[in-house]
Backbone:
């Protein structure tokens, strides 16, 4: 009986992992979502050109 419960929990865990992995691009690369605030960056101007 314990084995059946353990197997069910295992498959529930697998299903949740598959759902979270569903956030990928069509080529299979992961979709990255940043939660950090935007920090503007000012690059130095190129001298000599």
Residues:
């Amino acid at each position: 009986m314990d084995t059946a419960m353990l197997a069910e929990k295992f498959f529930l865990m697998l299903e949740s992992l598959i759902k979270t992995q569903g956030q990928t691009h069509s080529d299979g690369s992961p979709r990255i979502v940043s939660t950090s605030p935007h920090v503007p960056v000012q690059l130095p101007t190129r001298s000599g050109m």
Summary: The radius of gyration is 22 Å. The chain has a mean pLDDT of 78.
